[in-house]
């Protein structure tokens, strides 16, 4: 039964506010060093594995999750699913979960050590080392319940921008949207 369900299709191009003056990732894409790093296949003496230089990690679609409150300004709560999540039953109960003033409800992935912060972040950097526990658990980033009211109150998008701007030289983390998500 799909009664009450709404599907809204929007084009990325319709969001005029998603531009390089507001979005750090788009600003980085215009930077010649960033373009060289991701797109020219430059040789850095083998220090950076090729997987860390995959331009898909700069795709705005991967970063759009950090702008959900702006894409849907009237919504109070969102269930966010990555495109590779297979839904096998009704998820409507997720909207009833009390997040207790937390911005994000997600499943922790602490079973294996490769889901700990130290696997995603550069703990030799003092900014990371002084703010985050290396043994903190990550979570299943592809399935989240976001409280958009709390998100807006806490300016989560602004915090995301802060970390993206701090990592312009790629010294805090190398790969993807999960590291800035963990920091944010």
Description:
- The protein has 184 residues and is mainly α.
- It has one domain (12-84, 96-183).
- It has helices at 24-30, 32-39, 60-63, 68-71, 126-131, 148-154, 156-166, 178-183, and strands at 77-81, 104-105, 143-147.
- It has a 3-stranded antiparallel sheet with strand order 1-3-2.
- It starts with 23 loop residues before the first helix and ends with a helix.
- Its main location: Golgi.
- InterPro entries: GAUT, Glyco_trans_8, Nucleotide-diphossugar_trans.
- Pfam families: Glyco_transf_8 (PF01501).
- This is Hexosyltransferase.
Instruction: Name the strands of the widest sheet in spatial order.
Output: 1-3-2
Largest sheet: 3 strands, antiparallel
Strand content: 5-15%
Q: What is the tally of helical segments?
A: 8
> Which H/E pattern describes the elements?
HHHHEEHEHHH
General shape: globular
Measured as a percent range, the helix fraction is 25-40%
Give the strand tally: 3
The structural class is: mainly alpha
Number of domains in the coordinates? 1
Mean pLDDT across all residues, rounded?
Answer: 85
Give a concise summary.
Pathway: Glycan metabolism; pectin biosynthesis. The protein is mainly alpha-helical and 184 residues long.
Secondary structure topology:
Elements: H1 24-30, H2 32-39, H3 60-63, H4 68-71, E1 77-81, E2 104-105, H5 126-131, E3 143-147, H6 148-154, H7 156-166, H8 178-183
Antiparallel strand pairs: 1-3, 2-3
Membrane topology: Single-pass type II membrane protein
Enzyme class: transferase
GO molecular function: polygalacturonate 4-alpha-galacturonosyltransferase activity
